[in-house]
Design goal:
By secondary structure, the chain is an alpha+beta fold. The protein contains four helices and five strands, in the order ββαβαβαβα. The chain has helices at 21-30, 55-88, 96-104, 119-127, and strands at 2-8, 13-18, 43-45, 90-93, 113-115. The protein has a three-stranded antiparallel β-sheet. It is rod-shaped.
Length: 144
């Protein structure tokens, strides 16, 4: 598809979409084009400014492409972290804070665990000197 700026003999300007330049030429020669304002079929191409990509537009497009690549790489890295954690650690669910304390104070065997803890519980664990880390993945059960 190609867009031409058209102009009639009465200086009314309007746009016209055509399959290609040859289609425009055929319709213009056959008198099939008419001005939507006055109806005259004496219509021709008007001057048009070419739509050129500026260097800034190219920079923006390249930046968006780079951001997309970074986002995809980040998602892949997060997926790999999740795979490693789920393969090598025990999911203790919402008992994470309780289990982390038991491990820290030697009340149960030392092992890698993961689960959920509230912000308050996490802060309390940190205050007690227990190393914890938030993992950057979504809860799969909340996805549509």
């Amino acid at each position: 598809m190609i867009l031409f700026q058209l102009k009639c003999e009465h200086d009314h300007e309007f746009e016209g979409w055509f399959k290609d330049g040859a289609t425009y030429e055929a319709q213009a020669e056959s008198g099939d084009l008419s001005c939507p304002v006055c109806g005259t079929s004496n219509v021709g191409k008007a001057l048009m400014a070419p739509r050129l990509r500026t260097s800034r537009q190219k920079e923006v497009a390249a930046e968006k492409q780079q951001q997309k690549a970074i986002a995809e790489a980040t998602q892949a890295a997060i997926a790999e972290i999740r795979k490693q954690v789920e393969s090598n650690c025990e999911n203790v669910g919402n008992k994470f804070a309780e289990e982390a304390r038991k491990i820290h104070y030697g009340e149960t065997e030392k092992r890698g665990i993961y689960g959920q803890a509230s912000v308050k519980e996490t802060a309390e664990l940190v205050d007690e000197g227990i190393d914890v880390m938030a993992l950057p993945w979504d809860d799969e059960t909340k996805k549509n």
